[in-house]
Protein 1
Amino acid sequence: MSTDQQHTSKSWGHRLRQENRGLREKIAQQKKEVRLLQKELKNTWKLISDVPAALFLVQKGKIVFANQTACRELGYTPKEISVKTLPDLLHPDSISFANALQQEWSMDQILPDQNETFLTAKSGQTLCYEVRANKIRYQGKTAFLLNMLNLDQRKAQEKRLGQSVKTEALVRMASGFSRELEDSMILLGEHIQEVQGPESHDNRLLRSLGRIEAVREKGAFLSNHLNCLTRTEYDPSEIALLDLKKVLKKAVNISHPKWTAGSESNADNINIRTYLRALAPVYGCKRELEDVFVNIILNAIEAMPGGGEIYLTTEEHSGLAHIYFQDNGTGISDGIIDKIFDPFFTTKDGARRGLGLTLAHAIIGRHEGDIRVISHQDRGSTFLIKLPLAESAPLFKCKTRKKGLRDSRILIIGEGGAVIDILSQLLTGKGSTSAIASSHHETLKLLRGNKFDLVIADQNVPDIETSKMIRDIKRLQPDLPIALINARENPGSRNTPIKMGADVAIGRPLNMDRLLSLLSSLLAHEVPY
C-alpha cells in the first residue's frame, strides 16, 4: 500500500472514530432526556392521581385510568377498576350519559359543559356526581377525560345552610311576634277580669267569656312555643348531667296516656320496643329534651293509623350519643321530607300548628346536637338525634365490647323494614360498610363480585329458603361467618338454625346490644355464647 493510500485510510478511520464518539454522546444525551421525561411523566401521573376530585380517562367505553379519589369514593382498587367499563359503574338512571358519550364519539356531537349523573359504588351505594367531559387524544386515539365532583357532600352542606337560614329568619320573626302576642294577652287578661266582676250576670257575656278564655289559652300556648324558638342559650340553672336512658323511658311514659286517650285510639296495636344501652351522660335541659322525644314518638304513632311498632335505640360513637326513633308507618314522601322542619308546616288537620319538629330542631341545636330523618314511602321513618357526650366521667360504667366491627364489610340479607334499617345504621355508626341483598340471586351476585367479612341473614325474608341460601354461601366462601337473626326457635329444636350452617342464631325480640357483641366475636373468630 502506497504512502498516500495509508494516509487516506488513517484519515478515514479518524473521521469514523470521531463520528462514533459524537453519536455515543448524542445517544447518552438522548437517554438522559428520556429519563427526565419519564420522571416528569411519572410526577404528572402522580399529580393527576392525587387530584381531590374524581378523574376518569375513558376510551371506547373502557376505563383506562382512574385516580385515587375516584377509587376511594367508589370503593375499588386501581386493579379492580381497570377492568371495568363506564356503563358498569353507571346507575341505571344514568345510562343516557353513556349513550351521550357514544354519540359524541361517533357523530362528533358536543356534550353539555356539565352533566349530573349517578354512579354505583362497589358497596351498592348510589353516588351523585357533577361531570365535566373533555374529548382528548390518548396514545393517538380519541378518549374522554371526565372530571367528576361528588355532589352528595355539597347538597348536604347546602341543605344544612338552608335550614340554618330559615331558622334564623324564624327566630327574628318569632321575637317580634312574641312581644306583640304577649301585649295582646295582657289586654285580654284585663278584659276577662272586668267581665268576671260581680255586676256581670248576662248569659251572653258568660258565653263571650268562655270564647275569650279559649283564645287566651291558645295564645299562651303559642307564645310559649315562640319563646322557646327565640332562645339562643340556657340559664345555667336549667342544665344538668342527664342519663339519656332514663330521659327516654320517661318520655315513653309521658306519651303513653296521650296516645291511648280517645274512643278511636289504636293503643292496643302500638308496640314500643326499646334497645337502650348505657351511655355516658350529656349536659342538657331535661324538660325540653323530654318534649322533643315525646313529640317524635307521637308523630310516629300518628304515622301508623292501623298500629305498628316503634323502635327506640341508643348508641355511642365518636363522642356523640346517637338516638334512633324508627317506625314502620306510612313514611314521608320525597315531596315534603325537606319541609318537615320548616316552621308552621304541617300535613295534619285540626289545631296542629306545625311547630313540633321546628321546636325539636331548635332545641337540639341549642344542645349543639343534630337531628335528621331518613324515610321511605309506605315503609316508615327513622329520626336520628345526635347529642355531644359530657366530657366529665360517666355516671355509670358501660360494658366494654370487643373490637372487630370497624372497617369490616358486612352483607345484610333482608327486605328492608325497621329491623334491617336500624341494624344498617348501627353498623355504619360502628365504622362498618354494609350492603343489603333482598333475594337469593342478589346475595350470590354480591358475594361473587365483592369481599365480605360477615353475613347477617334475616330468616323472615319471604321467598328465600334459608337453609339452601346458607349452603350456597358456604359453598362460595366456606370461612365466611353467618349470623341468622329473627331465628324461629321451636321447643325442642333450639339448635335448628345452627344445623343449617349459621354460626350464630338470634331469636326475637332482637337485643341490638347483644347482637353487636356477637357480631364482634364472629369477626374476631371467637366462639360466641
Protein 2
Amino acid sequence: MPKELLRQWKVSDSADLYGIKEWGGGYFDLNQKGEATVTARFGGTAVSVSLMDILSGIEARGLGLPILLRIQNLLDAQIERIHESFRRAIRTYGYHGQYQGVFPIKVNQQQEIIEGISRFGERYDHGLEAGSKAELIVALAMLNSTNSPLICNGYKDREFIDLGLQATRMGYKVFFVVEMPGELPLLIERVRATGIRPNIGLRLKLAAKAGGHWSESGGDFSLFGLTTTQLVEVVDVLKAAEMLDCIRLVHYHLGSQIPNIRDVRNAVNETVRFYAELAEEGAPMGYIDLGGGLAVDYDGSKTNFVHSMNYTIDEYSADVIEVIMNVLDEKGIEHPTVITESGRATVAYSTVLLFNTLEISRSQPTALPESLPPNTHELMHNMHEVLRTLSVKNVQECYNDALYYREEILERFRLGQISLRDRALAENYFLQILKQVLTLKSRLKRTPVELEGLDDAMYDIYYGNFSVFQSLPDTWAIDQVFPVIPIHRLNEEPTRKAIIADITCDSDGKIDRFADFHDVRRTIAVHDVPADQDYYFGVFLVGAYQETLGDLHNLFGDTNVVSIRINEDGSFDFLNETEGDSIADVIAIVNYEPKALLRMFREKAERAVRSGSLTVAERRAILDTYERSLNGYTYYKT
C-alpha cells in the first residue's frame, strides 16, 4: 500500500474499528503513537500509561510472554464505581437502608485479587461469598472488617457449619443461605450443640428468568433455591425450632451476565414480594441479597445482546433501589440493606492477557504464471480462463465455475490424475479468483446470495503464543466474546483479516469470534507483519472466571503474572511478579514425579553411551537440555 494512503489513517479510525471507547469502560484507549493505553483516575485527573511501555518493563525484568497483566487501580475503581453508584441512588430516592457489595470468591480465587478486594473494599465494608469450605477458609482469613457480610452458599457439612458458627461468635457477619430443605436439620442440630444463634438466609427459586448464557440459573427449573412450597416448609420448621428470629436475608441468583435491565427489575420486584411476606410472617429480616448478574459490556454495543448490557451501573442501582422502595413503602416495611454479589463487573476490567505472534499463515495467493505449460491438465486451463475473463458482469458465474473446477481438481488429485504441483497451482488460482470476486462484489448493486459472507472467506491465521484452554476457556466452552486488539501500530491502517490460533494442537484452540457492535465478527482486522518484527495482541476484560476455569490442555500451565499500580505522576510500579508454571510443575499435577523422569532419562542416556550412540560429552549436553526444559516455561520462548 502506498505510504500516502497509510498516512491518511488516524488513531481515531482504529479506535472506531476496534470499539475500544465503547467497551473500554473509560479505562482503555489509544494514544497518538498508536498504542493501547490504560487509564487510572486520581480525583479529577486521568493518568494514562501505554501497554507497550508496561510490556517493555515486563520484558526487561526477564519475564516472557504470554503475560497476565493485573492493574490494581482498575480493581479499586470498579469497587468504588459500584458502591458510589448505589450511594447516589440511595440519596436521590431517600432510601433509608444501606448498600454492601459482596465478591463471590469463585469468580477469581487468586490471593492477590481477594487481598485487593478486601484491602480497598474495607472502606465500604465490602464482603465475600463462599460456596465451599476452602473458600470459607480464605474468606475468614482475608476479610478485614467484621462489618462486611460473609455469605455462605452451597452444600454445608458439619465442619462448614461449625466453622461459620464459631466465626459468628468472633463477630463476623456470617449468613448461612439455605438452598434446599435438607440443609436445615444439620444446621439446627449444630446451633443447639454450640448455642450460637446464626444469621440465616433463604435462597429463592424465582419464576423470573434472564437472557444470556446463564438463563438456566433462574426460573422454575433452576437447580438451586427453594420453591414457594419449600419456603413455607422451611419457615415452619424454623418456627418450630424457635429460630424464626434467625431469618435475616433473602437471596436469589438469576445469572452471571444479565444483559437486559427489564429482567433485573422483574427479579427484584418478585424478590421484594417474598421479602415482605417473610417480614409479615414475623422474621426480623434486614437484608436482601440480589446475587450476581451485573453485566459487562464486552462488545460495546450497549444492547441486550448476550455479550453486552442495555444499562449502566447507575441505571442498575437506581432501578434496584426504586423497585425495593415501591414495594416496601406500600406495606410500611423498613428498607433493608441491599447486597449484590457483583463478581464479573468487579474484576473483569482489571486483567489483560498479552501475547505475541509466533507465525502467520497468509491467504494471499502467490505469483501466477502468465500462461500454462501445454501438458497441464485441462481443468487447470479452465481455471486460468475463469480468472482471465472474470468481470463485474459475470462475477457470480465465474465464482460458481471456480468452485466447480476446484472440486474437480481435488477429486482428480485423489485419483492420482493431477500432480502435487498442479494442485498447488490450482489453489493459488482459486485464491486469486476469490480475491478478485471480493473486489468486484463491492461494485454490485445487489449481492447475490452465493456471494454473501465471502468477506470473511479469505483470512490469515496469526499463531499466538498462548493457550485458549488455559487463559481464555470461556471462548471455547461457551463462545464468550472478549475484546481483542493489537496493542500497537494503531496509527497504521490494518490491511489484513485474520483469526488467531493458539499453540495447542487442537482445532478448537483458536479465537474466531470477535466483538462487534451489531453481531459477532468471524475475523479481526490486523496489520501485515514482516518476518523480523514482533506483533502483540491484548485480550481485555478477562479478570472474571478465566484463571479459575483454565485447564492444562497439552500441559500448558499458568502464564506469568505481573501486577502494576499506576501512580499519579504517570509512572507505574511493579507490585508482584509471579512466574508461570514450569514443565515440572504441570507434569507433577498429572502425577508424574519430575525427579523420577530425570533419573529415567539419565539411565537411557547412559545406555546410549554404552552402545556407542552418544559420547560422554553428548550425554552431558542432552541431559542439560532435558533438565533445563524440565524447569522452564511451558510456553514458546523467543
